Amino acid sequence: MNGDFAIQTFNLTKTFNGLVAVDGIDLNIKKGELFALLGPNGAGKTTTINMLCCLLKPTSGTAQIMGYDINRQPFKIKEIIGVSPQETAISERLNPQENLNLIGELHGMNPRELKSRSQQLLETMGLADRAKDQVRKFSGGMKRRLSIMMALVHNPEILFLDEPTLGLDPQARRVMWEYIARLKEDKTILLTTHYMDEADFLADRISIIDEGKIVALGTSAELKTSMLEKHTMIISVQNLTQQVIKEMRARYAEVEITNGTMTISAQKLDFKEIVDLLHTSGATVRSAYIKEPTLEDVFLHITGKELRE
Ligand SMILES: Nc1ncnc2c1ncn2[C@@H]1O[C@H](COP(=O)(O)OP(=O)(O)OP(=O)(O)O)[C@@H](O)[C@H]1O
Ligand SMILES: [Mg+2]
Question: Would you give the end-to-end CA distance of the chain in angstroms?
Answer without folding.
Answer: 36
